[in-house]
Structures
1.
Amino acid sequence: MMVHADVAPEARFLALKQELAMHLVAYHVRDAPVISDAQYDVLYAQLLDFEAAHPEWITPDSPSQRVGAAPLDGFAQITHRTPMLSLNNAFSVDDLSAFDRRCREGTNLAADDAALEYACEPKFDGLAVTLTYENGVLTQGATRGDGEFGEDVTANLRTIRSIPLKLMPLNVIGASLGTSSPPTLLEVRGEVLMMRRDFDRLNETQAAKGDKVFVNPRNAAAGSLRQLDSRLTAQRRLSFFCYGMGRIEWPPGIDAPLFATHAQNIDFLAQLGLPVSAERRVVQGAIGLAQFYEAIGVKRAQLPFDIDGVVYKVNSLRQQQGLGFVSRAPRFAIAHKFPAEEATTILLDITVQVGRTGAITPVARLQPVFVGGTTVSNATLHNIDELQRKQLMIGDTVIVRRAGDVIPEVVGAILEKRPADARDFVMPTHCPECHSPIFRVPEEVASRCTGGLICPAQRKQAILHFAQRRAVDIEGLGDKIVDQLVDSDLVKSLPDLYKLEFSQLASLERMAEKSATNVLDAIEASKKTTLARFLYGLGIRHVGETTAKDLARHFCTIDALMAADELALLQVNDVGPVVAESLLSFFAQSQNRDVIDALLKAGFVLSHQTLPGVSAEENATPFAGKTIVLTGTLPTLSRDQAQAMLEAVGAKVSGSVSKKTHYVLAGSDAGSKLVKAQELGITVIDEAQLLLMLQLAPQSLI
Ligand code: IVH
């Protein structure tokens, strides 16, 4: 709609107001804006100008009237014109068929009649509200309360951008009702919720300010809507979806449209500019219901808001009337709930777990609770910062969440239920496993046990890490066996694994002879591995699988890697100062060097040319079988390092240049050897080329 300058100012103002209202619906309700935010801002500024010049023109339906009003002393109680009922729940397919059967019986459908038609919708996990529009203008909004009496939260609801302050005019939506007058009265039923994105953002700001964080979007929505100061509500981003109609009345003398189905009702609300869910469907029979449930279950995690199930409603309004109500719930509708992803329980204690690198993780010990399909009694709390962010205290009633296959998490505490004797978690000063001091590196979130491999917990984790499939792959060496091996002192460090005897393994609890043999075979087989897997298995901080591969490709042998200084390490792809420092400090510790020595002595074969199942061609590197002479000073590698690397890939390093020399590796200040190489036409390479050629060695080998 264009606002022309030659129209009288008040008419221009009214047109502008309507245009802005339409843009708000396009943006907040239909997710399909037709103008840019900047263009909107220009129109909005014009509106504010008009209203500043003519305050008498300001009406409650103006887009400027969404900023919240002065705080109230309390919410007024209102009586719902039509009661706000609740729904019965179904939890299983059996419950579903029973619902369908009851509906069929209630509508007198015979067994061989066609399937009953249902309107299906998501069950929004928010708060039920009712909106009253009189002559198309929002005049009141209220919470459900007890279904009969609710609280007047009009000022708060007005701040929600997806709730139109004025309905779309019927002539604009093309309704052929013989009138363009809106319903004189329309009650809209729906749910206020907070999008997950807005919830995350809100909690971030709350935490940054040191304010209370909310445990889930539902609680955040409830807390935001029930603010006596609606200016606070205006700062929270709430959303709204409607799922039904209460009373609707038309001006006298109008042929009121008679919608036949619930789906038509909802379509009509959508046309009026009210937000409805895109996920609604009309289906046939119990099979259709089950399919809808399935489909939404799959989509659930991707939806931008939380739902706790789906709702089925007999679609025909006539049939709905025939079915009627039982006590406070309709017979024609049912909520099919998803298994709860959240449950409340008691945080009995917080203990700590020691990880492979000594990182101390606080773990919540919970009163066992059934959630997301399993019983949960422990949940990681990650680190002390996280614990503080969630404001948890021992003794709290907490919300535990387990969604899909995601590991269970403690979402937060219900602060209202905090007992007087709740206590804070205190990070122990000493490791519960080895009693070494625990310290927190100032710039890190984790606290660490300083016991290193003295600490049995770290040892166990280090062994499991070394044995895992992506490292040296000792099949069958799981945590139960490792616990026993470490606790009985049979294995104090990695090389001890390679000294294990059959009788020792067979004597472990629940270890059959056959399994003992299998584990021994797997330990033996693990010695033939790649340098990259071996390196990764050592569990050097910041050396994940990819870095391990890069290092192996670059240095080719463990000796060359161990001999490398910082400059040499920094030559490796993706190795920066942090990784280099970690490698240097790892190899600087004699106990780590001893472990590597002992493993090599136990028979590890890491040379990447001798991998079983790899053809000679694949094994070929540019240097295999070639004679190379080194001369001058290389920029980063020492002569020894360069020699070790070359030998590791099958080169022969010679002291003098002859016709048989394949390459001369020359650094600065190269002397007569370089001159001779040039005379003989031998390829001269520098360190950069050497490294490049080494990196070009087949990756599959390392
Ligand atoms: S229809 C006659 N449809 O669930 C009852 N309710 O347990 C009308 N809810 O308080 C409710 N999504 O707030 C209906 N698509 C949906 C819903 C829905 C969420 C809530 C509603 C109600 C509760 C009923």
Note: The CA atoms of residues 299 and 400 lie 22 Å apart.
2.
Amino acid sequence: MAKKSNEIIKAESRGLYGTVVEELANSERYFSDDAEKILKFHGMYQQEDRDARKRDRTADHHQFMIRSKMPGGQLTAAQYLTHDAIADEFGSGTLRLTTREAIQLHGVLKDDIRDTLRRLNHALVTTLGACGDIVRNVLACPAPTADPQRQAVQQFAFELTRALYPRTNAYHQIWLDGEELIDDHVVDEPLYGPTYLPRKFKIAIAYAGDNCVDVYTNDVGLVAIFDDQQRLRGFNLLAGGGMGMTHNNDATYARLADEIGFITPLQVVETVKGIVTIHRDFGDRVDRKHARLKYILADRGVEWFRQELESRVGFQFEQTQLMPEFSVDDHLGWHEQGDGQWFLGIPIENGRIVDRGNYRLRSGLRAVVEEFDLPVRVTAQQNILLAAVAESARADVESLLAEYQITQVQDISPVRRRGIACVALPTCSLAITEAERVLPGVIDEFEDTLADLQIADADITVRMTGCPNGCARPYVAEIALVGRSLDKYTVFLGGSPVGTRLAKPFLDLVPIREIVPTLRPVLAFYRDYRHQGEAFGDFCTRVGFDVLSNLIAIEGEKALGSD
Ligand code: SRM
Ligand code: SF4
């Protein structure tokens, strides 16, 4: 039987019911391809443990990844502890912080999905819309702040989430209520319509000057602008960013968002809704590789987009406001919140919260969150912020973390601090090769080489993905390692350290063991010829790839000569 297209599956799903209920009741450990597509909207992916499958091809290795939707990365202590408890009870015993400030549980079996979702929802965490062709988790700068103006900015993550939430009751009926299902239910989705969006849709909110959410890589970006008295004036509106591309397909590409104009706080919800409807109405519903909002901007132009949006919202946008230069604050270490309390940003390598030997990260975080009842925030760099620490509790928090041997920001190098890897193997079905499991070793090599070159303090952003989909936002990194084939990567260079310029492909099919040795002459050249304070990505862009390629060729010839 011919495979149904996503559009037909969505249309026939009657508001995201599909065949989930029937298939949930059968004795299989997995869902059909069609149901799997609907399940994404409910916040889960059907996966296999690819390591286990390799070891034993006869057994069934189906399992589910469940992703929570946490606007602005915010959780209460109780909500964090619920995720932690579920990880043991139904998951793989780890928590995975994501690049979109969310938490993923891996390894949940079909029979445990309902209990997992009930537990999460009981703690007031939803997974509806965490995946699927719909508005995903809304990012906002996660730094806990007591300043009401800044809190107001973060509140937009919740306001937009509420305004763009799907209306279907399929999620609640199937997973939570357990009521008898009515066959002819009518689902009205005034915003999305019966086929939802052509593709996923991502929103991020940043403060002018701090691009910790990689605002230009989102379908919609909002950059908060304050006046001289630190009152919120409004937002610069960006649209059409996205990272995903496919190797050897030039029609797909990473793209930074365009500046559309300036909007007031009262115009935010209507404007973003308007953009969602443009995506709904003009997005490509035939070719999913060409279906993101960015291709509408690229194909029809910014001017067309602005006019279409203005006609939908009924007002004209002001000119984009001048913004200070961006930097990126990862919010790690201790910071005052502004209300006498403190927050502590703890680095989590590639977002994986797990106990490994003496490094008992998961147990230690559980202990400290529980004992001090600390709200949690997840950052877009896959790290965690522990909020609302009383001045008097700081030393106790420190010593508890030390008891579990939890690494703090002062214990790691700048290159490790900046590194991000996507999940990739063993759970991601799209992974061509490794990322999360190998980046720590690659960073070890970078650390050794940088130390050897006497630039151990070089603050270089390295991001790695197991395929070109771009889940670690590699194409805005200074060095991007993008999975190309087994253990081989395309090396991109030249992204700006603050996420405002794309990196370009520099070397292809580099075996993992050769990445750092190959880049060594480029790093040495950077040490010798950089301008005062010049970032590595800026340096690579200034000197150009011809010069950098020559350096590598010369080193290669020298190595041959010495044989
Ligand atoms: Fe992603 C698909 C993991 C952020 C672009 N992403 C996937 C899937 C679900 C694989 C699949 O479709 O079967 C991965 C699940 C792996 C696993 O086992 O957990 C996956 N993406 C992730 C996470 C967990 C990476 C991480 O290590 O943190 C991030 C979850 C974010 C969240 O909480 O919602 C994640 N993905 C991103 C980002 C970064 C961002 O949004 O800021 C991007 C690039 C930005 C963008 O969307 O353009 C991204 N993921 C993709 C794409 C390519 C989309 C495209 O336009 O081409 C896919 C594949 C697809 O959609 O077909 C994908
Ligand atoms: Fe999987 Fe590719 Fe995303 Fe990595 S970048 S998580 S390999 S889809």
Note: The pocket of iron/sulfur cluster (ligand 2) is lined by residues 422-424, 428, 430-431, 435, 465-467, 469-471 (CB under 6 Å).
